[in-house]
């Protein structure tokens, strides 16, 4: 255990990590990073959290967060190696510097060692439930730590976790019980929504054996407590919180299949659930609270989720209870208020009804005209109608309104659930439902027309009712694909949508204008070029609306219009740059007016629309490139000071990347102008260490460097050595972008240049660090391959190839995943293809004589696998590399090895689609918009994507090379190799590769088997 002085020192360092002084903060973070490699360090952090000493009370939350981050970073093994335990055991020891590391002191990813792990697991549950950790800010972090460890170790490596948690169920303190239940719920959520497998079902059964009886006992005992304490608000609140969490655990345990125990006790569970669907207690209701759900509401919503799960699965044992619950839920929904605090309960109950009414088997429950009328009139319309809270949100919290209302939102709002209910009705009762809804629509429109100024809410509901009833099927990305032919959508559009959009008065019914823009967005696939050409001026005009919702919807509508294809089979844009060209200037002016406005902040939808417009107009943007780039760099300068919106930032950099691509792909000399404008803000980002933007900067720098036609230049030159700084490579998000940038440097400057050669040790040090991790080994292969494939590569690195091979083969001995073997063999193919098999063999045998032939077994095993799906360019590289193997003395002297190489080459050739001269060069291909999004791990810029290049472009047809090499070998020893090849092909019994295939291939190049 740590002494008081150690805890006091750690406390001071942790306080410093939240200091406003960046220098002090970074020093503290570095101190913690260094300390974390010390054996027992996580235990010291836990000791600080557990200390009853009041002097540490202010730092415990920081310590709990720090501990959770240690677990997140250091518990899961990056490699599933047999040696991982010993790696953890030795992780905290210092590592000697390696010549190829350029001074880096450690290439092993941080992991918590095996001595500390059992201590942590033994004490963590008791610590979380102890009084010293009762504060939610501490308890929540420790619970999250348990969940992180459980995601790796539970149940097989942490068998006492669940018994420890269940052991706390009898506690009289609801603080303890709810803390434990919350942790169990977090652990078991993984049973939901995941694919079925034997291992998953084994884990579920393990949990059921331990938990199913105590869970029911706890629900029963807590229910009795509710009955016995009707006036104790504090105890009731704790009890209902427990009941709600138990219900969520029940939901997880029943998600995959109905367990036998729950089926046997269905009546008891359903009886208790039914009780709470009608439970009322004024002590649990705060009349002044309008937004936050009450404890009863939360429990009822959780119960309805369970019932919806059963109804969706058509569980036979649940069917007898269905009529009772349908009536109870119907009554509950009808009396649920329109206040926001009841939103979750209303949405959940509507989804239950949707799950029933959309199925043919429950048709009799809803088949009468009166029932359908009541559903539309009493449930759908009231929940579609705009509320006072919605109007307030529209004005005061537009961001939240947009997130909940816009097409594609994941929010289960009342309105969205009501729409799905109406569409569910149409599956079995389309004609009746359409007629009932149409009557409501006409009534609402008449109400609006009688007093447009005061009755605009009626038109809002009418528009949303049309949106609900008209769509049979749609997707977020593609829009509506099938419509209800009983509704004349285009007539409604002309009569009721167009007049609102062409009204240039921004203050007139802005919420209805937003609805109308959403209408256009929803039916974008149904509009012709003529429709859109007419609409574009109005949509662009609404970019200047002073309502954030309206100008956001306008931008989003424009962006989605620009993604519409001609049809499902023709991916050509329907509204291409020819359609957009007359509106470009006004469109970009509208976008940048919002982007530059301090009042509206960082609007990700407007930035996304900007990116999309740039991608559609392509090279036609040249005329306004300088203006657009200035606007984007100004926006970049503003967000650098305080990055807040990751999506906005991502689309900002995508806009820069698409501008670079559009201009420089047609005029590479333009890179100089881009560098002049982009380098200043990029340097600021790197100097200020704006970590969110650094990976983006590296990607755009790599993109510019790849387009450059002249030499690297001084600006890039001064940046290269700092890129090898170990601290930059500590961030996982930097690694993909940094690797690409280093590869671009090597390709542009050359390995023997005065820029690369002096820094080669540092470069290889980075390579070694990357090869120590499964997650990063692919980037390590990229770095070393960049050197090998360059014309100057061999001369630059031949003195290091022994060490490089040692690193690669040491890794081969440690890991078991086939992806590494595949990458290694592909690297060998590159080496043999570029350097020649003799040099590949020479440097391997420097490590151990005969090692090259020993590795042939690995090579042939990988290359001959049935599940290899080499792409065209990889196939070409492998064929050319293996053709060079056929010239090695060790291969030629062993008939079986020679035949094995030929068989593998033939197998790869058969799998190639063409003649080997083409490939996966996707230059000029369209970027699919749905692939563009922010990712917290690493956000790849889709428009900065580097096309896959042919490393052997000088070879027109690799099959011709193979036939020529094999012809020469067979003629050098007639009858020798052909017999071995024929015998091996026959023994393989491979349907895709046989003697006839080889003979046909050779015959195509006038080569005969001899």
Question: Topology, pairings included?
Answer:
Layout: H1 4-16, H2 22-35, H3 41-50, H4 60-74, H5 84-90, H6 116-128, H7 136-153, H8 161-166, H9 174-188, H10 198-228, H11 233-254, H12 260-264, H13 266-277, H14 295-313, H15 322-335, H16 343-357, H17 369-384, H18 388-396, H19 398-405, H20 414-450, H21 456-470, E1 471-475, E2 479-483, H22 489-502, H23 510-522, H24 529-541, H25 548-561, H26 577-580, H27 584-595, H28 604-617, H29 625-640, H30 646-664, H31 671-688, H32 694-707, H33 714-720, H34 735-749, H35 760-771, H36 777-789, H37 793-797, H38 801-814, H39 818-835, H40 837-845, H41 851-863, H42 872-885, H43 889-892, H44 895-911, H45 958-972, H46 976-988, H47 995-1004
Antiparallel strand pairs: 1-2
Q: What can be said about this structure in brief?
A:
This protein is mainly α. The chain is 64% helix and 1% strand.
Question: What does it look like?
Answer:
With 1010 residues, the protein is mainly α. It is built from 47 helices and two strands. Strands 1-2 form a two-stranded antiparallel ribbon. A hairpin with a 3-residue loop joins strand 1 and strand 2. Helix 6 crosses helix 7, helix 28 packs parallel to helix 30 and helix 30 packs parallel to helix 32. It is globular. The protein starts with a helix and ends in a 6-residue tail after the last helix.
């Amino acid at each position: 255990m740590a002494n008081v002085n150690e805890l006091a020192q750690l406390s001071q360092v942790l306080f410093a990590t939240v200091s406003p002084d960046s220098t002090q903060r970074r020093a503290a973070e570095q101190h913690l990073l260094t300390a974390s490699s010390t054996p027992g360090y996580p235990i010291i952090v836990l000791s600080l959290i557990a200390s009853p000493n009041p002097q540490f009370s202010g730092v415990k939350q920081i310590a709990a967060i720090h501990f959770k981050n240690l677990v997140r970073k250091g518990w899961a093994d990056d490699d599933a190696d047999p040696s991982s335990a010993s790696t953890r055991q030795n992780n905290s020891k210092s590592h000697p510097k390696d010549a190829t590391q350029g001074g880096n002191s450690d290439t092993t990813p941080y992991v918590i060692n095996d001595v500390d792990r059992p201590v942590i697991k033994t004490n963590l549950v008791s610590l979380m439930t102890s009084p010293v950790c009762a504060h939610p800010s501490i308890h929540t972090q420790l619970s999250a730590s348990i969940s992180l460890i459980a995601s790796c170790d539970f149940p097989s490596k942490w068998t006492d976790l669940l018994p420890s948690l269940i052991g706390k169920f009898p506690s009289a303190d609801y603080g303890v019980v709810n803390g434990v239940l919350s942790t169990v719920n977090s652990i078991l959520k993984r049973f939901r929504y995941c694919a079925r497998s034997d291992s998953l079902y084994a884990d579920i059964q393990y949990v059921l054996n331990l938990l199913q009886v105590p869970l029911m006992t706890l629900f029963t005992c807590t229910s009795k407590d509710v009955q016995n304490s009707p006036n104790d608000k504090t105890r009731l609140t704790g009890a209902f919180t427990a009941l709600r969490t138990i219900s969520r655990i029940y939901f997880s345990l029943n998600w995959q299949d109905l367990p036998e125990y729950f089926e046997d006790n269905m009546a008891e569970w359903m009886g208790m659930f039914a009780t709470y669907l009608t439970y009322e207690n004024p002590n649990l209701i705060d009349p002044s609270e309008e937004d936050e759900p009450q404890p009863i509401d939360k429990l009822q919503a959780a119960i309805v989720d369970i019932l919806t799960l059963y109804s969706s699965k058509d569980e036979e044992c649940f069917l007898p209870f269905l009529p009772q619950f349908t009536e109870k839920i119907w009554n509950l929904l009808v009396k649920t208020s329109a206040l926001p605090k009841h939103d979750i309960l209303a949405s959940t109950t509507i989804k239950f009804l949707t799950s029933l009414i959309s199925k043919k088997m429950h048709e009799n429950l809803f088949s009468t005209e009166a029932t359908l009328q009541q559903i539309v009139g009493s449930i759908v319309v009231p929940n579609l109608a705009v509320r006072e809270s919605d109007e307030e949100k529209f004005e005061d919290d537009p961001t939240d309104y947009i997130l909940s209302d816009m097409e594609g939102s994941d929010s289960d709002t009342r309105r969205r659930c009501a729409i799905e209910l109406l569409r569910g009705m149409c599956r079995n009762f389309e004609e009746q439902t359409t007629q009932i809804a149409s009557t409501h629509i006409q009534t609402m429109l008449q109400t609006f027309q009688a007093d447009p100024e005061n009755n605009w809410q009626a038109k809002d509901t009418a528009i949303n009712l049309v949106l609900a009833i008209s769509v049979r099927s749609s997707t977020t990305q593609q829009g509506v694909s099938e419509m209800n032919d009983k509704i004349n959508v285009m007539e409604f559009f002309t009569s009721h949508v167009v007049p609102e959009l062409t009204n240039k008065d921004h203050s007139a019914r802005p919420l209805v204008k937003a609805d109308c823009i959403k209408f256009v967005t929803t039916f974008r696939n149904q509009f012709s070029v003529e429709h859109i050409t007419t609409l574009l001026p109005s949509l662009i005009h609404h970019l200047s609306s002073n309502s954030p919702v309206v100008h956001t919807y306008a931008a989003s509508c424009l962006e989605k219009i620009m993604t519409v294809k001609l049809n499902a089979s023709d991916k050509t844009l329907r509204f291409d740059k020819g359609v957009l060209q007359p509106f470009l200037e006004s469109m970009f002016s509208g976008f940048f007016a919002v982007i530059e406005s301090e009042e509206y902040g960082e609007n990700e939808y407007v930035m996304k629309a900007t990116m999309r417009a740039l991608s559609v107009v392509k090279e036609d943007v040249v005329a306004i490139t300088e203006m657009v780039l200035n606007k984007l760099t100004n926006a970049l300068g503003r967000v650098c000071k305080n990055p807040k919106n990751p999506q906005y930032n991502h689309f900002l950099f995508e806009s820069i990347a698409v501008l670079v691509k559009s201009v420089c792909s047609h005029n590479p000399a333009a890179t100089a102008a881009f560098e002049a404008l982009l380098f200043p803000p990029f340097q600021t980002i790197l100097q200020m260490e704006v970590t969110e933007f650094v990976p983006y900067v590296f990607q755009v720098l790599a993109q510019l460097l790849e387009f450059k036609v002249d030499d690297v230049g001084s600006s890039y030159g001064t940046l290269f050595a700092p890129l090898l700084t170990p601290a930059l490579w500590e961030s996982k998000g930097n690694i993909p972008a940094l690797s690409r940038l280093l590869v671009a440097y090597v390709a542009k400057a050359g390995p023997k240049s005065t820029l690369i050669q002096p820094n080669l040790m540092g470069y290889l040090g980075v390579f070694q660090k990357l090869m120590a991790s499964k997650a990063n080994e692919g980037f390590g292969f990229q770095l070393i391959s960049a050197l090998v494939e360059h014309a100057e590569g061999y001369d630059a690195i031949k003195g290091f190839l022994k060490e490089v091979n040692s690193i690669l083969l040491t890794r081969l001995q440690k890991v078991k995943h086939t992806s590494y073997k595949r990458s290694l063999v592909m690297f060998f193919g590159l080496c043999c293809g570029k350097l020649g098999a003799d040099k590949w063999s020479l440097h391997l045998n420097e490590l151990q004589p005969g090692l090259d032939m020993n590795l042939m077994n690995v090579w042939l095993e990988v290359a001959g696998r049935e599940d290899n799906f080499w792409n065209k360019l990889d196939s070409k590289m492998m064929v050319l590399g293996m053709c060079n193997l056929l010239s090695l003395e060790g291969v030629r002297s062993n008939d079986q090895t020679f035949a094995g190489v030929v068989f593998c080459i033939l197998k790869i050739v058969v799998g190639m689609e063409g003649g080997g001269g083409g490939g996966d060069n996707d230059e000029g291909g369209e970027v699919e918009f749905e692939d563009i999004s922010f990712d917290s791990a690493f956000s790849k810029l889709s428009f900065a994507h580097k096309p896959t290049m042919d490393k052997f472009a000088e070879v027109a047809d690799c099959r011709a090379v193979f036939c020529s090499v094999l012809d020469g070998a067979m003629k050098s020893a007639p009858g020798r190799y052909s017999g071995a090849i024929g015998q091996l092909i026959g023994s393989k019994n491979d349907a895709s590769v046989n003697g006839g295939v080889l003979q046909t291939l050779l015959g195509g190049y006038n080569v005969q088997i001899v």
